[in-house]
Amino acid sequence: MPTMLSTHAHYILLVVASLAAGALNAAAAGGSFISFPAMLGVGIPPVQANATNTVAIWPGQLTSVLKLRNDLRRELLVVAFITSILGGVAGALILLWLPPQIFLYILPWMISSATLLFLFSGRISRWMRKETSQPHVHRPISSLLLFPLLLPVCIYIGYFGAGGGLMVMALLALLGVDDMHQLNGMKVLVACLSNFSAVVTFIVERAVVWHYCFIAMIAAGIGGYIGAHYARKLPQRAMRILVIIVGFSVSGYFFYRTLHPAH
């Protein structure tokens, strides 16, 4: 009986975490801070957990893109598509080809850095909006400039991904996109395309633990649609606080594991 309850608890954990991750990725970003620890919690090794998590949350990003398609900057779609595909594949291959110990070593640094970016993203966005004299005006963005700046972010998304959407928003805001709905739409699109490329790579390389992936995938898809639908209505303060707490907690845990590998 305890074993059965434990197994059901794993499924419940995955469903709840994946629903929340899909909704957060659509409404605010940072969903992997919740879904990735859930993958680890059911006993999947870190590299496979990252790959499985990427596959599982991708449908949520796709449904979010469909819901937010009217907020996309059409003139940026070609360069965003090319950059996301190249970066997503490169990041996924780096994850799979490097020794797992390297991923474990840099994992807490990536999570803590992404959490810090998430923590201060609101202030950065407000500052950027104050700096513009003509908000919500389409400013031309050079593809030759966007490609080299966006590519490292897409590689990061393919490699790990948590906080990558915030990096996309910050980059586009610096380049002149100041409408927050457009920033959110482009963030979801780039994350979706980069993760799709990583998903294909992970599947080909057989790095996905399908036993848990399908359930999390369905839940993330539902959560992504719900999150996109209510993205302009949900009070996001409590959700952001939860993401920040989870992000720092997970990074702290892996910092401890790095310093005390025997525990």
What this model shows, in words?
There is one protein chain. The protein is an all-alpha fold. It has ten helices and no strands. It has helices spanning 2-27, 32-41, 46-67, 77-97, 100-131, 143-159, 164-175, 180-204, 210-229, 237-259.
Shape: globular
Stretches where pLDDT falls below 50 for ≥5 residues?
1-5
Mean pLDDT: 76
* CA-atom Rg in angstroms: 18 Å
With helices defined by DSSP (H or I, 4 residues minimum), what is the helix count?
Answer: 10
Q: Largest sheet, if any?
A: none
Along the chain, the helix and strand elements come as HHHHHHHHHH
Distance between the termini: 28 Å
Helix content: over 70%
Could you list some keywords that capture this structure?
263 residues; mainly alpha; 10 helices; disordered N terminus
